[in-house]
Amino acid sequence: MNESEILDFLYAILPAAVVGLISFYFFHSYIKNEENRRRFLLLREKQKTSLPIRFQAYERLALFLERISPGKILFRVQPTSEDADSYATLLIANIEQEFEHNLAQQIYVSNECWDYIKTAKNATITLIRNAVAKEEISTANGLREIILKNLMEKQSPTDAALSYIKKEVRSLA
Questions:
Q1: What is the pLDDT of residues 161-170, one digit of tens each?
Q2: 99 lies in some domain
Q3: Is the pTM of this model over 0.85?
Q4: Which member of 4, 33, 70, 152 has the greatest number of CB atoms within 10 A?
Q5: How many domains is the chain built from?
Q6: Which residues form the domain of 153?
Q7: Quick check: is 146 in a domain?
């Protein structure tokens, strides 16, 4: 083969190579876009089914926070005796039972939201324990009065968690 035959061969191959590279680029881009489109459609379909479940979880957790709010639990759970310690134990048991009932909701909310909920629960229990630890309290009604007085002075522990739930739900909608 001489030089002119090699150049003729290159001139014949070069356009085919350019067309082949351009075709490869376009087919590769097309396949990538189709894959992204399919992923987007799957994600959208998944969100259609999971979003209502997540909203329901937020609703249940908001209801949980409302139910364990110190002001509301005192009126919902009546003392069975006049002993402050037994009433505090009853209140704490009620809070723990509510928490256990809503434990599965944690898989539908963010870790930060779940941490707020656990903190609110623990702070409410601590508020009750601190109130019953005061020496001047001996009756269940005295315990109720102290807890309600504390609520007038400062915000309920459940309010911060409820605010966070509302913020997170707004970000989903």
A1: 999 999 999 9
A2: yes
A3: no
A4: 70
A5: 1
A6: 50-172
A7: yes
Query: Is 159 part of a structural domain of the chain?
Result: yes
HSE toward the beta carbon, residue 16, CA cutoff 13 A: 5
Read off the tokens for 172. 């989903």
User: Hey, is 76 helix, strand or coil?
Assistant: helix
Residue 64 · residue 162 · CB < 8 Å: no
Task: Kindly report, residue by residue over 62-112, the tens digit of the pLDDT.
Answer: 999 999 999 899 999 998 889 889 999 999 999 999 999 999 999 999 999
Q: Nearest CA to 168 among 105, 107, 110, 120?
A: 110
53, 108 Cβ separation under 8 angstroms: yes
> From its phi and psi, is residue 69 left (phi > 0), alpha (psi between -120 and 50) or beta?
beta
